[in-house]
Structures are given as C-alpha cells and as structure tokens.
Amino acid sequence: MIGAATSCVGLDAATGPLSLPFVDDRAVTGLKFSAALPHRLAVATLASRLADLPGAEAVLAEPVRVTHLL
Fold this sequence. Notes:
Strand order of the largest sheet: 1-2
Structural class: alpha+beta
Shape: elongated
C-alpha cells in the first residue's frame, strides 16, 4: 500500500544570509560607464541593483509542505 506523510515546515533553521545574484561579464560591459569603474565595483553595483532581497526573504518565510511517499 502506498501512503503519504505530509508535514509543513518553516525554513528558519535552514536559511542563512542571502547572497547577491551572479553578474555576467557581458552585463558589466554594457554599463554606460564601465570603463570608468573598477571591475569589482561594477559587479557589486549590478548585483545590488538586480537583487530583490525583501522579495527573497518573503518567499523563504512562506511555509513549505514536504510530502514523502511511503
């Protein structure tokens, strides 16, 4: 017989600090003033603009349902 066990868990214990998204070098090259910025600063600037940290935190705060087939 196949049954299912279901539980709802929060991700509080599993989450750590959020990281910024990966920035492709082509995006850095496309910056208007990319030649005037050090590469690391350009990458950090784009990553912070692309990040939606409040949105990511809201999604991670939602309950998760894990279902295992027995």
